[in-house]
Design brief:
Strand content of chain B: under 5%
Number of helices of chain B: 7
Oligomer: heterodimer
Number of strands of chain A: 18
Number of strands of chain B: 0
CATH topology of the largest domain in chain A: Jelly Rolls
CATH topology of the largest domain in chain B: Arc Repressor Mutant, subunit A
CATH superfamily of the largest domain in chain B: Winged helix-like DNA-binding domain superfamily/Winged helix DNA-binding domain
Radius of gyration of chain A: 24 Å
Largest sheet of chain A: 13 strands, mixed
Order of helices and strands of chain A: HHHHHEEEEEEEEEEEEEHEHEEHEE
Number of helices of chain A: 8
Structural class of chain B: mainly alpha
CATH architecture of the largest domain in chain B: Orthogonal Bundle
Number of domains of chain A: 3
Number of domains of chain B: 2
CATH class of the largest domain in chain A: Mainly Beta
Order of helices and strands of chain B: HHHHHHH
Largest interface: A-B, 53 and 52 residues
């Protein structure tokens, strides 16, 4: 049955509305008066939304990405069943900062016990370089987070990475250097490698530049030793790995500030741009075609230049930048 | 601990319903990011309740969950937006008396909100003319001068708005009677 309630809800969801109307609508919807009729209208709206009956073929990258995030959160909450605190990595990272500050406080007054963890975070559009206490050089890409102890002790040197970084590991045969991330673990003695493990990306990859490393993946049940110039890519959805021989200058392009995309879909390109530039991107993934593109941008290319070229090449989208937002729409 | 077949079943439900849950939240909250958060939270909870994974149970559970979390978020926004006035404000509602439905005095608030939503969906120029006429009480002549239009055009704009609004409300009123 159609009525005022359905009409209001239908018109509200149909398009963009002014903030004042949105506020009016919200107050109306949350108001107890006629709440049953309002709920009916919501239910009718719900019934009209389509379901994804045909699995696989119809499923968007977005949905797979969300599935990966949900699975990750489920795994994390299981891994810490007795301590439900660690639900997102953001929260866990925040907890580590708190833990770090409080341990700092205590270690200043009492004797040092376990090693203190230090968190290094590179903001959007940034890049960071640091030297670890053992002399290992780390170059970090935008939005990457690295957790490492103030002093390495014990049998190995372990650090935790979220995002992408390049490691030039200081040689120490007695203490292997281990980088842990989401689903990946790379063990090295003295070597240089690049690890890319951004939360939300469908694939993780480790590329060896020199020396030798062992990569463990799939909940650490599989392992693979890499030779120089080899890249191991692991798809967290299909749980399959593959070895490539990429152009090393492309793998390390980000360190020089270059942007390289090789047969990459617009959705994936935007994901990378979101890390590189301090703009939030507003777009509907469903409106982007799955076509693959190859682009190469020099260092310090502005977002406008990048977008101008992408728009011209793809021919299927347009964009506009307002304040710190970049709106992308299909034509 | 769950088995592999649990995982597969969960993924099937996820693929079937996730975008429905997310889109439902997105069009109401008008924010893709919030919608994504809401939808992810709900599916993380669903994982904890395997007895709800069967057929229509899953769907009903998801609806209840998404509706409640949207309403909770909206209530929080209402508190934050710090509105003192709880009435739907159509600048001067008396001016819209021409739309009042005497039989539906009880749905006054709904009627006003409906008019407001409908007005927003009209072309900018047409809405501007209408608001100047009905809310700011300008004469057609004054509006025509201000907007550099002919009086004839102004009249036409107002006529079209009235026609659209009346049609919309008539349909809603008509159907409400059943």
């Amino acid at each position: 049955m159609e009525n005022y309630f359905n009409r209001i809800v239908e018109l509200f969801v149909k398009s963009d509305v002014s903030p004042s109307l949105q506020a009016d609508f919200y107050r109306w919807l949350a108001d107890e008066k006629f709440s049953r009729k309002k709920e009916e209208a919501l239910y009718n709206l719900w019934e009209k939304m389509t379901e994804n009956r045909d699995t696989e073929s119809d499923t968007s990258v977005d949905t797979w990405r969300s599935l990966a995030k949900v699975n990750k959160r489920i795994r994390e909450s299981q891994g810490n069943a007795h301590r439900k605190l660690l639900r997102f990595w953001q929260i866990s990272a925040a907890c580590l900062i708190i833990a770090f500050i409080s341990t700092l406080y205590f270690t200043h007054t009492t004797k040092r016990e376990a090693a203190d963890l230090i968190e290094q975070y590179v903001p959007i559009a940034g890049m960071g370089h640091l030297t670890l206490p053992d002399g290992t050089e780390v170059q970090m890409n935008s939005t990457a987070t690295l957790l490492y102890p103030e002093q390495f002790s014990g049998k190995n040197r372990s650090v935790y990475l979220i995002g992408e970084a390049n490691f030039k590991v200081a040689r120490n045969e007695k203490m292997p250097f281990i980088v842990k991330s989401n689903d990946f673990q790379v063990t090295a003695l003295g070597t240089e490698f690049n690890l890319r493990a951004y939360p939300g990306d469908s694939t993780l990859s480790a590329t060896l530049l020199s020396g030798s490393v062992e990569v463990k993946f799939n909940n650490l049940t599989s392992a693979q030793i890499l030779k120089p110039n080899e890249q191991l890519t692991y798809n967290i959805f299909t749980k399959t790995e593959s070895i490539h021989h990429p152009d090393i200058s492309e793998v390390t392009a980000w360190q020089r500030g270059e942007l390289i995309f090789k047969s990459t879909s617009l959705g994936e390109i935007i994901t990378v741009l979101e890390r590189r530039y301090p703009y939030s991107f507003v777009y509907a993934l469903s409106s982007l075609k799955e076509d693959k593109y190859t682009f190469r941008f020099k260092e310090n290319t502005s977002l406008t230049e990048v977008m101008d070229i992408i728009v011209r090449v793809s021919g299927s989208i347009k964009y506009r930048i307002e304040d710190d937002k970049c709106y992308i729409t299909s034509i | 601990m769950r088995t592999e077949s649990d995982k597969t079943r969960f993924e099937e439900i996820f693929i079937q319903y996730f975008s429905k849950v997310r889109s439902f939240a997105a069009i109401l909250l008008k924010s893709e990011q919030e919608a994504e958060d809401v939808a992810q939270d709900i599916f993380v909870k669903l994982w904890e309740e395997p007895e709800l994974w069967e057929g229509s149970l899953a769907k009903n559970y998801l609806y209840t969950m998404v509706k409640n979390s949207i309403l909770n978020r909206i209530k929080r926004k209402n508190i934050e937006s710090n509105y003192i006035n709880h009435q739907i404000n159509l600048q001067s509602s008396d001016e819209l008396a021409e739309f009042e439905d005497p039989l539906n005095e009880m749905y006054r608030e709904e009627l006003h909100l409906l008019l407001k939503v409908a007005l927003e969906q009209m072309p900018d120029k047409r809405r501007e003319v209408f608001e100047m006429s009905r809310f700011h009480h300008l004469s057609n002549q004054e509006i025509a001068e201000k907007l550099d239009l002919s009086v004839r055009t102004v009249e036409q704009h107002i006529y079209l708005v009235l026609k659209d609004l009346k049609k919309l409300i008539l349909i809603a009123i008509f159907l409400m009677k059943f």
